[in-house]
Amino acid sequence: MTEPEHEGLPTGWPEDAWPPGTRVRVVQDPAWDGPWPVEFWGTVDGPEPPAPVEHAMAADGELAYWVDFDRPQMDSEGAGPYRKARIWGRYLRTEKDG
């Protein structure tokens, strides 16, 4: 799994954000059983560029990404299955991150 080059980013895509096509692992929050009950792989995608998370608990400059899941997933509340979701950057790891 590799990360695509940043050249040719779609319009409005932040320069410091992972580009579309980046493979990511969705991880659980260590403080609670969510927002997803299991860890799984997906791919950064549109339809919109990553956007700042507007929430009191968000880290300064934290982005939320649209992620296409390799397999449909249920969330920690039992809703779903979802094939894609907008996920805060803190819950994403690339292959380089380990």
Structure description:
With 98 residues, this protein is mainly β. It has one domain (23-97). 0% of the residues lie in helices and 34% in strands. The protein has no helices and 6 strands. Strands 1, 2, 3, 4, 5 and 6 form a 6-stranded antiparallel beta sheet that branches. Strand 4 and strand 5 (82-88) form a beta hairpin. 14% of the residues are buried.
Descriptors:
single chain; 98 residues; mainly beta; six-stranded antiparallel sheet; 6 strands
Order of helices and strands: EEEEEE
Q: What is the makeup of the main sheet?
A: 6 strands, antiparallel
Number of helices: 0
Radius of gyration, Cα only, in angstroms?
13 Å
- The proportion of residues forming helix, as a percent range, comes to under 10%
Shape: globular
Assign the structural class, choosing from mainly alpha, mainly beta, alpha/beta, alpha+beta, or little secondary structure.
Answer: mainly beta
Number of domains: 1
> Based on DSSP secondary structure assignment, what is the total number of beta strands?
6
Low-confidence parts: 1-5
Average pLDDT works out at: 87
Question: Helix and strand layout, with pairings?
Answer:
Layout: E1 23-26, E2 40-45, E3 51-52, E4 63-73, E5 82-88, E6 92-94
Antiparallel strand pairs: 1-2, 1-6, 2-4, 3-4, 4-5
Summarize the structure.
The protein has strands at residues 23-26, 40-45, 51-52, 63-73, 82-88, 92-94. With 98 residues, the chain is mainly β. It is globular.
